[in-house]
Design goal:
CATH superfamily of the largest domain: Glycogen Phosphorylase B
CATH class of the largest domain: Alpha Beta
Number of strands: 19
Bound molecules: pyridoxal-5'-phosphate
CATH architecture of the largest domain: 3-Layer(aba) Sandwich
Structural class: alpha/beta
Length: 567
């Protein structure tokens, strides 16, 4: 057994599986919100010294690096990084069965070290071994790359390979937590592991100890968007993985027409949750017959507070990083110092923007930020529903900063980016707009701390939670958002920020959203920012005391422990 791993295998662990884990910008093991959430989860688990081990895929060629050409087209470049700079290779190998052959899986150990002293191991699986065929060596290279067969093979490696690897490394596991359906094949591995002999049972079906597996598994679903739920044809499944379980058995867990990874997770877990209260309800509607709980997401406070705010919090709210409940006392921070810390972050952002784009943004203009995956339901262009109205409201009073990648196969997401760049040119003389390329965790921190307002305009109820707004709140930046996901819980109108569109208990009205957006910008947000700075700073302070104190992964992890892990 590797010496390195030894210090982690002496107590039973919760195994946390995620296809992506965002720990730092220079390790391209994530694409967006799901991965960053996984990273924040793990960092908080380390702070709290929870007995946890995480499992993911190495993806050493990354997701992609984004460039934009003159026409506003997204160009995807490889985003290679060197794992040996951050982690250590382990010598243990396990095998998984893929297309009639055995593929060898190796791994790397990354240790998350909490500022509070805790340490948490992450096992990154890697098939790039000389013993494997060239096509198999690439299976863990690209995050969300390739076709459906490539995806299924990655999920075999994550779910089945990962579970075998934990065993091989000497881990004893008390719960398996699936962060999204990508890892749900682990349930099949567990069913096989705990299979009873035919002599012990009455009928053939009960050789499968379903209850035992369910007791071991926890499943978190992350999106109500249909395309977010992986489904594979059984023909493909049989071709790629053989009949792991008898097909009728498999269908009874994972769906009749296709192997649905979400159904597999739902059927074989004793605890299932969505990632915000509303998302729990929406998921319950999508999957009647299952008991779906809700644990609202958070962000890792220490990771998502900029330096100038950190200094201020250290002065007024000592201990905030390990006990974010202390943010409830943010009211003690002086207005002048809060504003000064914000302006320091804002100047750094504006300098960065001006250096990247020569657009000439100004420190004293109300700056709105919008950055997230570019995909249709997030409606990045809602702000431009009526371009003339927008220009009239924003002229001389607003500047807008955009960022976000579109998945390489998401054409409508790519068109959104091109459209924003087109409008930016069109409005050049009236409102300064920029689109910053290559959104990643570093840029995210600059943005959420340096803008004055964080905008979010999803089509309800498709935003399961959203987390960038929680990062903004941690830096005293108020949210201006459609009432969906976490904002339904975090919003107090005019106090922690502002809503766009109708309240969550009435039907969504997409046509009204843009109107409401303009109305509030013009009559509430712009006037408050320029004419009533004291009220503005009060709202900034409330974002910290009312939102950051709750929407953090420290609170979230305590809930996973008490509601999912110890049951
Ligand atoms: C936080 C974060 C996200 C998620 O933002 P949402 O508001 O949930 O869409 C995506 N990408 C990066 C780089 C992030 O840091």
């Amino acid at each position: 057994m590797s010496l390195l791993i030894h210090e982690f295998t002496n107590e039973q662990k919760i195994a946390y599986y995620s296809m992506e884990i965002g720990l730092r910008s220079d390790m391209s093991t994530y694409s967006g919100g799901l991965g960053v959430l996984a990273g924040d989860t793990i960092k908080s688990a380390a702070d709290l010294r929870l007995p946890m081990v995480a499992v993911s895929i190495l993806t050493k060629k990354g997701y992609f690096k984004q460039e934009l050409d003159k026409q506003g087209r997204q160009i995807e470049l490889p985003d290679e990084w060197d794992p040996s700079q951050f982690m250590a290779p382990l010598k243990e190998r396990v095998r998984v069965y893929i297309e009639d052959r055995e593929v060898l899986v190796g791994s790397w150990l990354y240790v998350v070290k909490s500022a509070a002293g805790g340490k948490l191991p992450i096992i990154f699986l890697d098939t790039d071994l000389p013993e494997n065929l060239p096509q198999d060596r690439e299976l863990t290279h690209y995050l969300y790359g390739g076709d459906l067969a490539y995806r299924l093979k990655q999920e075999i490696i994550l779910g089945i390979g990962g579970t075998r690897m934990l065993d091989k490394l000497g881990f004893s596991i008390k719960k398996y937590h699936m962060n999204e359906g990508h890892s749900a094949l682990l349930t099949l591995e567990l069913l096989r592991r705990y299979k009873r002999s035919i002599d012990e049972v009455w009928d053939e079906r009960s050789v499968w100890d379903v209850e035992k597996v369910r007791k071991l598994c926890v499943f978190t679903t992350h999106t109500p968007v249909e395309a977010g739920h992986d489904k594979f044809d059984y023909d493909l499944v049989e071709k790629v993985m053989g009949a792991v379980l008898p097909i009728p058995m498999m269908k009874s867990f994972a769906g009749n027409d296709k192997l649905n990874m979400t159904l597999l997770g739902l059927n074989l877990s004793h605890y299932i949750n969505g990632v915000a209260k509303k998302h729990g309800e929406v998921s319950q509607g999508m999957f009647p017959g299952y008991e779906i709980h809700a644990i609202t997401n958070g962000v890792h406070s220490f990771t998502w507070v900029c330096d100038s705010m950190k200094a201020l919090f250290d002065k007024y709210l000592a201990g905030w990083a390990n006990e974010p409940e202390i943010f409830v006392r943010a009211g003690r921070i002086s207005d002048d110092e809060l504003w000064a810390a914000h302006m320091e972050a804002k100047r750094a952002l504006i300098d960065y923007v001006n250096q990247e784009t020569q657009v000439g943004m100004e420190y004293d203009v109300l700056t709105v930020g919008y950055a997230r995956r570019a995909t249709a339901y997030k409606r990045a262009d809602l702000l431009f529903s009526d371009i003339e109205r927008f220009a009239a409201i924003g002229k001389g009073k607003l500047q807008i900063i955009y960022a976000g990648k579109a998945h390489p196969k998401d054409d409508s997401g790519k068109r959104l980016i091109a459209r924003i760049l087109e409008i930016k040119e069109m409005l050049k003389k009236k409102v300064r707009i920029v689109f910053l390329k290559n959104y990643n965790m570093d840029l995210a921190l600059k943005l959420v701390s340096g803008v004055d307002v964080w905008l979010n305009t999803p089509q309800r109820p498709l935003e399961a939670s959203g987390t960038s707004g929680m990062k903004a709140a941690h830096n005293g930046v108020p949210n201006f958002s459609v009432l969906d996901g976490w904002w339904i819980e975090g919003h107090i109108e005019g106090f922690t920020g502002w809503a766009i569109g109708p309240s969550p208990d009435v039907a969504a009205d997409p046509a009204r959203d843009a109107d409401d957006l303009y109305e509030k910008l013009e009559n509430v947000i712009i006037p408050t920012y320029y004419n009533n700075r004291t009220t503005w700073i009060r709202i900034m302070n409330n974002a910290i005391s009312q939102n950051a104190n709750y929407f953090n992964t420290n609170r979230m992890m305590r809930r996973y422990v008490t509601e999912a892990y110890i049951r």
